[in-house]
Amino acid sequence: MRILGMLVVLWVLVTIVFLLGSVVPSEPARAYAGAGASPQVIAQKRKELGLDQPLAVRYVDYLGRLAQGDLSESVHTHKPVADDIAEALPATLELLFAAVMITVLIGLGVGVATARPRRGTGLLRGALVAGASVPVFTLGLLALFLFYYKLGWFPSGGQVSPGAATVSGPTGFLIVDSLLRGQPEVFFDVLWHLVLPATALALTPALLTARTLRSSLRFSLRQDYARTARAKGLRERDVLWRHALRNSLNAPLTICGLELGGMLAGIAVVETIFAWPGIGLYIDRSIAAGDVPAIAGVTLVTGIVFVFANAIVDLLQLAVDPRLRRLA
To answer: Among candidates 256, 236, 276, 270, which has minimal Cα distance to 317?
Structure first.
């Protein structure tokens, strides 16, 4: 049933992207032919692109091309959109993976640290609320101002430093390929460039996750099994880590799955601010150029990443909460 649901969601996404591409006010044929093209040239281009066909025929043709991995040609780069995305997607996935790791580390650490009443937790809770309310573009600009302009601890942007050794490898992921090629200096250079954009992307989801985990832990620590563990002589730390934590992970995992959508929505902003060469920067330039095929292609790929990422979150929830397996 879960697989069927994923397929239905993907089909709805494909259909919506097709319909939106069909009703945009810009003329794709004119964009391909050029602003100064004659009406005859534009009409010929419309015929070549199949835009003179009925909507149903174009939809079936669109599905057939998608099944072959054909996302049409970019108006801006004049290359297949699938090739452009294949070049840019690894950098985005590296950034997204780093942001997810930061989200998990901060969310787990802060959530556990504030679960038990102690001096200063009230101030920390206030910081959680305030930090979770800051927009991602504000975090990015503040990070650049403080850690690049004022302190000079991190670079202003890009994936590697100017003049750094180039790495070409089998995976397309610069971090992985640098290790496979035996170039640790490139690996650490990429990590150095990852810190600011990944943190800016992760901070709001991390603080929301921490708040959710804190509430779940406080509820779990009041349950009968926690009282029984204390009565058996277990220390409070052991009760939290061995009993309460696993029973409290369901809600934070749900929040992480929902916040992945926010990350994917904010990734274009972060990549633009930090000049990160991923699909966020690619779609920003595509929007400026009115490149409808590129925008549609990135939307599809982003939706697919989101659907599969949430499927992974569902599997993690089943792993940490056996009660959900009976409902699956």
So the answer is: 256
Evaluate whether 132 touches 210 at the Cβ level (below 8 Å).
no
Q: How do residues 69-83 score in pLDDT, each as one tens digit? A: 888 878 777 788 888
Q: What are 246's two structure tokens?
A: 């696993």
Helix (H, G, I), strand (E, B) or coil at 80: strand
Q: Per-residue pLDDT averaged across 305-326, rounded?
A: 72
Q: State the Cα–Cα distance between residues 40 and 291, nearest whole angstrom.
A: 22
Categorise residue 128: left if φ over 0, alpha if ψ from -120 to 50, beta otherwise. alpha
* Half-sphere exposure in the Cβ direction for 7 (13 Å, CA): 4
For residue 89, what are the CA distances in angstroms to 63, 170, 228, 283? 22, 14, 50, 11
Residue ranges of the chain that CATH labels 1.10.3720.10: 81-326
Superfamily classification of domain 81-326: MetI-like (1.10.3720.10)
**pTM for this structure?**
0.80
